[in-house]
Every structure is written in C-alpha cells, then in structure tokens.
Amino acid sequence: MRDRWAVILAGGDGTRLQSMTRTITGDNRPKQFVPVIGGNTLLNQTRRRVALSIEPSRTLIVVTQKHRRFYESLAEEIPGSLLLEQPTNRGTAPAILYALLRVAAKSPKAVVALFPSDHFFAADEEFMSHIDVAMDAVEVQPETVMLLGITPTTPETEYGWIEPEPSILASAQKSITRVRKFWEKPSLNMANSLLQRGCLWNSFVMVGRVDALLKMTRAAMPEMYAAFATITPAFETATEHKALAALYSHIEDSNFSHQVLAVRPGDLMVMRVGDVGWSDLGEPNRVLSALARMGVQSELAMSAS
Fold first, then answer.
1. Are strands 268-273 and 176-184 parallel, antiparallel or unpaired?
2. Quick check: pTM over 0.85?
3. Helix/strand/coil for 12
4. Of 75, 112, 140, 264, which has fewest CB within 10 angstroms of its CB?
5. Contact (Cβ atoms closer than 8 angstroms) between residue 213 and residue 144
C-alpha cells in the first residue's frame, strides 16, 4: 500500500449559502453538514468520493468545535485520531497546517491530497482519476505541489482562477504545467480574457508530499508555522486540546489561497481537469445550476425560483 493520505476541510462556517441551507434544515448549520444536493450531506459525499482513491483509515477530517452537534454522528463513526477538532475557525491556513503536521507526525514522506468538504462534483470517479494521476506524479517528483484546475465554461467572476505557464500541452486533459499567477474574483472583462487565454478555475484541491507542502507553508507563513511546531509534541496526547486552545486564542485568521498559494506560485504545478460538473456551491444560483445540470426538479429549486 502506497503511503497516501487525504485531508478533508470541514471547519468553515458556510455563511454565504445559509439562506438556502436554512430552508433545508431549519437551522444555520454550515453547508458541509447539509444534504444540499441528493440525500447525503456534502461532507459525506466528499468522504465517499475521496474513498475511491484513499483509504478512510488515512483520511483526516478537520472540523470546528462550535459545529460539534452537526458532526456528532461522524465522531461516533470514525476514530478520534482522524477527526481534528479546531477550537475555533481561523480560516483555511491554520486548518491545513494543523492537518499536515498531524500527517507528518505519522508519516513524514506521505503524499497528501487536500479537499474542501462543501463542493460538488457530478462525476466523482472521473475527478478522482485525476487525483490518482496527480499522486503518481508527486511520487515521481516529490518536491512538486500540484493544484487541480477546472476547465472553465463561463467567465465566472466569483471564483479564483489559475493562470498556467504557456505550454504546448496546456489544453490537454490531465496535462501538468507550472503556475504563472493567481487571479482572485476578477472583473467580467478580465474573466473573459482569462477564459480565452486557457486559464483554469481553482478547485482548491491540491496534492503534494507532506514535506513539500509544509516547506511551502513555512516559507510563506514562518510565524504561524513556528507557532504550530511548538505544539506538535502534544499531538494525540491528553494535552493536545489545551495546547490547541492556547494557540488558536492568539493566532489571526488566515487564508491558505491568499497567504500561501498566491505568494508561492513558483512552488506549484497545475493539472487541467475537464468537465466533471464541479461547483463550489457558494451561492444559491450555483446550487440551482447544479440541480438543473442533473435534471433534478426539487422542491428547493421550485421554492427558490
């Protein structure tokens, strides 16, 4: 068995979609704990998708304690060592760094794939075939950190975009090229230009060897890295909860895309992903579009129309 791990990020608050998720559940739970599309929560859909390529026993799930009532059943289902509870949500950078250090403590040369828990894919197997290829590539080039970029269908202004370096292979599915630049929520004119130039939507799914991911994070955020490094001796001990609480009480909110990826493009490669029906479900219109794409006429769609 190759040393492959997954991290599922499920600690976000999901406030942008609450007008719709409240209709489904009657409360303000984050969208990853809501059956937005289909009968299962987005988190459980993500877990099933990830399990197509990575053993559940090597899949860590990062959550936030204030959401505990929404993941209590999950806590009863999986070992405590796989459920990483943050004292509070401080953004994606602390969540990812915490999870990577936990993986590194178990396996310093593991290959890790990181996944948001609140996105949707219409073609799970096709998407995970890209993860398999990315993991193979990272095993051959262990210094590589690879993002998965979705081939865009519209000049979307609310997504982050990845601009690859020019390459004769850049338009081929599963092609791998270097990253030139990131564009965050561009104007419509710029989004049209990015679309025409062969740029990609940033799925925020990434694959890398844990030491390469940690090296990149340390270079971009040395103070936060040093703060987390001080608590690694407490991992999986009775003092971990207390050490985390102390750490999270003084670190600032930080975003992995903005504060790590965007400042380290030279460390990154991007793989082109074709039409897998991806959406970040970040707003009600995207949910309705995903439902329409699936040919689903739900009560949710009718009530929102």
1. antiparallel
2. yes
3. coil
4. 140
5. no
